[in-house]
Amino acid sequence: MVEVKLLGAWGSPFSRRVEMALKLKGVEYEYLEEDLNNKSPLLLKYNPIHKKVPVLVHNGKPIAESLIIIEYIDEVWEGPSILPQDPYERAMARFWVKFLDEKCMPAMWKAFWSTGEEREKNKDEAIEHLKFLESEIKGKKFFGGDTIGLVDLAANFIAYWFRIISELVGVELITDDKFPNLSKWADEYINSSFVKENLPDKDKITAFFNARIRAPDETKYFPKA
Ligand SMILES: N[C@@H](CCC(=O)N[C@@H](CS)C(=O)NCC(=O)O)C(=O)O
């Protein structure tokens, strides 16, 4: 019997990417909630290099790193395609998700959690990156076109988690006037019924980041659900 397990954490945007990919494909799986403050032997065994969630375990074989997991899911299971079929479009989707994780996410994160001049510098950097996304999404419903695809799943942190943090720390980045296309995409994305059902509870995310604002050193990981 095919066995699919997902080691995840409820508040993690990376875990949620993978959960959504599995659900888009209609794959049945067992979800194992990880305590990141006290990592399980299973997580350490299956992801000894990074020791992070998500990890997908397919018939006993582990795969780590959310974007790699999603590509695997797309290749292994039938159902709606998550990556485009066209080789050039596939390459572009891979380009954008790399850009999201390597450039946008760190720059936005630094802008949220720094102060003073440093914060202004980080904000400028984040805005420069976001401008590229703004023009990429222009005229499209989703990055994937009419349906949600790899880039939308990967950009989930912008549409949900980072909007919440942005409000809590008072750092405006994606405003309707500066980034109308990206704002519209974010609304469309989080309000699509499929995504809405698969996002973590807003109050719980807010409580976690409020705790992080009060005590950053003691609030590293989402507490176990
Ligand atoms: N690049 C990884 C990032 C995964 C990641 O950062 N996961 C966090 C949870 S949001 C984690 O497991 N952190 C544990 C740690 O840093 O030790 C991916 O895309 O899967």
Structure in words:
- With 225 residues, this protein is an alpha+beta fold.
- The chain folds into 2 domains: 4-76, Glutaredoxin (3-Layer(aba) Sandwich), CATH 3.40.30; 87-191, Glutathione S-transferase Yfyf (Class Pi), Chain A, domain 2, CATH 1.20.1050.
- It is 57% helix and 8% strand.
- The protein has 10 helices and 4 strands, in the order E-H-E-H-E-E-H-H-H-H-H-H-H-H.
- It has helices at residues 13-25, 41-46, 66-76, 87-113, 116-137, 150-154, 156-169, 180-191, 193-197, 202-214, and strands at residues 4-8, 30-33, 55-58, 61-64.
- The protein has a 4-stranded mixed β-sheet, covered by helices on one side.
- Strand 3 (55-58) and strand 4 form a beta hairpin.
- Helix 1 (13-25) runs parallel beside helix 3 (66-76), helix 4 (87-113) packs parallel to helix 7 and helix 5 crosses helix 8.
- The longest helix has 27 residues, at 87-113.
- The protein is globular.
- The protein starts with a strand and ends in an 11-residue tail after the last helix.
- Bound molecules: glutathione.
- Glutathione binds at residues 9, 12, 14, 36, 51-54, 65-67.
- Residues 86-208 form the GST C-terminal domain.
- InterPro entries: Glutathione-S-Trfase_C-like, Glutathione-S-Trfase_C_sf, Glutathione_S-Trfase, Glutathione_S-Trfase_N, GST_C, GST_C_Tau, Omega/Tau-like, Thioredoxin-like_sf.
- This is Probable glutathione S-transferase.
- It comes from Buddleja alternifolia.
- It catalyses: RX + glutathione = an S-substituted glutathione + a halide anion + H(+).
Task: Give a short summary of the structure.
With 225 residues, this protein is α+β, with helices and mostly antiparallel strands. It contains ten helices and four strands.
